[in-house]
Amino acid sequence: MSKENYDAKLALLQAIPQEAVKTPNMPVDIFLQEAEDLYVWLQKDSKELKSVGLNWQTFVNDLPVRAGALRHAQSLWVAERYGREEARKEWDLVSPQAYELRDDLLNAFRFAYRDRQDLINRVSEISDGYGHPDMIQDLSDLETFGKKNKKELQAIKFDLTLLDIAADTSDEMADLLAKANESTEDNSEQKHIRDQAYTHLYEAVNEIRDTGKYVFRKNPERFKGYISKHKKRNRSS
């Protein structure tokens, strides 16, 4: 149901302007639980809440839909963040082997082409630069260059299958690096949609709570149901 809520609300969420978007000021799972608890609590107070103008359809009936949309948006963002973190862990694990392969190929090429200044110059050009993208490009360049100049490599008994491995490694590492470098938590599109979904639910929760606190300002037993337990607990701690 949460996905259906999300799909139904997505266009509306994306239309919320940046200046109106709020960032959660408590864990989202806690906020969602409080919203769902609020929905149950207020059912006994419909007459009183409606009497002071609370729009039941807009804020109350829509509350579970807004909550479902936020729950799914949060799940999508967590999955994106998890995927990025896993990619970074995998990069840290396998990138040393890719660097070692690049260095082994460079050493072999320098030895194989030591009597060919023109080829040695090209190897030097490939070896220039630094950083992960450069290493990935080096592997691709070395594969292409090596296959065009096999004679000298075969003379030193170089394993030509390493050229195919270099090409595959280059592709795999490029994909992995792209996943690891995807948008950061602070500016990813999925996080922005999550914040928009939070803003949409917050609007309803805030309107209901403000109304309930006004209506039951002299009735502590009903008033307490319109207070955020999380915020109250943090203020008292």
Helix content: over 70%
Q: Give a short account of the largest sheet.
A: none
Distance between the termini: 36 Å
| Record field, number of beta strands | 0
Structural class by sheet pairing and helices: mainly alpha
Rg, Cα atoms, Å: 30 Å
Low-confidence stretches: none
Average of per-residue pLDDT values: 92
The count of helical stretches stands at 12
General shape: rod-shaped
| Share of β-strand residues | under 5%
Q: Give the helices and strands as they follow along the chain.
A: HHHHHHHHHHHH
Structure explained in plain terms:
By secondary structure, the protein is an all-alpha fold. Helix content is 77%, strand content 0%. The chain contains 12 helices and no strands. The chain has helices at residues 2-14, 28-41, 46-51, 56-61, 63-112, 117-127, 132-148, 150-155, 161-180, 189-215, 220-223, 229-236. Helix 2 (28-41) runs antiparallel to helix 5 (63-112), helix 5 runs antiparallel to helix 9 and helix 7 runs antiparallel to helix 9 (161-180). The longest helix is centred in the middle third of the chain and has 50 residues, at 63-112. The protein is rod-shaped.
Keywords:
237 residues; mainly alpha; 77% helix
Question: Quick summary of this structure?
Answer:
By secondary structure, the chain is an all-alpha fold. It has helices at residues 2-14, 28-41, 46-51, 56-61, 63-112, 117-127, 132-148, 150-155, 161-180, 189-215, 220-223, 229-236.
